[in-house]
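Take a record:
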Amino acid sequence: MPPRPKGDTHVNSIICTTCGVSQFCARPDQGFACSHCDSLIYPRELNVDGGEVWAVDSTGTLGKVIDPAVSCEAMTEAWESWLAADSDLTARAALQALLAAALDLRVALRAGLSFS
């Protein structure tokens, strides 16, 4: 996944493979339509990479986010790395990893996903 700006709370939009121009938006029938060519996709057809899940943001845009469980695991690993850090450089890298995982979790939670 490409790096995102600090504080970004939007899903990574899924771009239409038919036209390659636009993203998918939610429809009343629980499907998604490309806002450029009206190509349709339904949840059963979505295939995202391991560690990611699909989500819909507050504007109705279909996208993908890091699975909250993956984010929590990454936060735990980063915290443990910070506790075991033997240098300032190692500690800083661990804290940066913790922040990145926390931001991923925030995006997923704002998209309405839960972690349990």
